[in-house]
Design brief:
Elements lengths: L21 E6 L2 E6 L2 E6 L2 E6 L3 E6 L3 E3 L1 H9 L3 E5 L6 E4 L8 H10 L2 H15 L10 H23 L18 H23 L16 H7 L7 H9 L7 H13 L3 H14 L12 E4 L3 E4 L9
Parallel strand pairs: 1-5, 2-6, 5-7
Antiparallel strand pairs: 2-3, 3-4, 7-8, 9-10
Length: about 300
């Protein structure tokens, strides 16, 4: 058989960990190709080269053409891909995760399938928001009420600080331009955060659909986790951008501001730590290519063995 041209597929252990990668890159109206170990993005302004393994998630917007060779490299380096709508507002589809290990996924499924453990994880999520309060005995109704009051207070505080009028959150996913500037900015900022959170969740092998607070949507867990950081990251950025008088494209300006806030990678590290904490697991490498067979008595047994010889 002829050898496949190009660089050799990297070993999973040799790839940067998800917490060490830069957050996301948004591409639209460009052609995405590959040159050696780099993704090339070509548009009317020229070509830029991006080492694929250092990116957490690539957001492909309208007008993006991606070659087969580019997707091969993106898959080999475990970079998440999300195909989005205009301005990165909607999530149409996504690519393969970095992790090939299901340890955290199994733990997530166990926790979400039991009412007692599900509430316990939900309380942990609220505890992250209310660091100095004891929420261990609060019901879900009480927690939601407290969270609602907290978010309304944050909106009022940012409105007062920036001078941006606030009349409430209004968002139509089919009519981005129909919202007022602050709601457009919030939508763009939150969407960027969702993309980042999504990339970390799937990179660790967790399910974006198995939420503990949100439920019934294939991104329920993404919304659970993103809500932990909106007050500190996306809401202040959205109000700051909306307060500017010289913004021509508020969606783009907001995404760039969110990107700048993410650029040091600290939020990816925090998301990773919080996910391990919520799952009750110590932080560890989970990218090993490991497969076992399930056994009702022994738990896991080795894969690739002819067990007929032992029966």
């Amino acid at each position: 058989m002829d050898e496949i041209s190009g660089i050799k597929k990297p070993e999973l252990q040799a790839l940067p960990r998800v917490g060490d990668r830069i957050t996301f890159l948004y591409v639209e109206h460009a052609k995405v190709n590959r040159q050696d170990g780099a993704i090339t993005v070509t548009d009317s302004r020229g070509i830029i080269r991006i080492p694929a393994a250092i990116v957490g998630v690539l957001l492909f917007g309208p007008g993006t053409d991606v070659t087969h060779r580019a997707m091969e490299l993106i898959g080999d380096t475990g970079t998440s891909v999300v195909w989005t709508g205009e301005r990165g507002v909607r999530n149409y589809a996504h690519g393969r995760a970095l992790s090939h290990n299901t340890k955290l996924l199994i733990k997530q499924a166990e926790l979400v399938s039991n009412v007692r453990t599900r509430i316990s994880v939900a309380r942990k999520m609220y505890q992250i928001r209310f660091e100095n309060e004891d929420v261990s005995n609060l019901t879900m109704q009480q927690l939601r009420g407290r969270e609602g009051a907290r978010v309304r207070s944050i909106y009022r505080k940012e409105s007062k600080a920036t001078g941006v009028p606030w009349t409430g959150r209004e968002y139509d996913p089919n009519d981005f331009a129909g919202g007022n500037p602050i709601n457009q900015a919030l939508s763009a900022a939150h969407t960027a955060l969702y993309g980042l959170v999504y990339s970390v969740i799937v990179a660790l092998g967790l399910s974006p659909g198995l939420g503990f607070v949100h439920t019934g949507h294939d991104l329920s867990f993404v919304y659970d986790i993103a809500d932990l950081y909106k007050a500190d990251v996306t809401i202040p950025i959205a109000f700051k951008i909306a307060s500017k008088l010289d913004v021509n494209n508020i969606g783009r300006e907001t995404r760039l501001a969110v990107r700048d806030a993410f650029v040091d990678g600290k939020i990816m590290e925090k998301i990773t730590r919080d996910l391990y904490k919520l799952m009750g697991e110590g932080e560890q490498e989970v990218i090993a290519d490991l497969i076992n067979l399930w056994d009702d008595k022994e738990g896991l047994v080795e894969h690739g063995v002819s067990y007929e010889e032992f029966s």
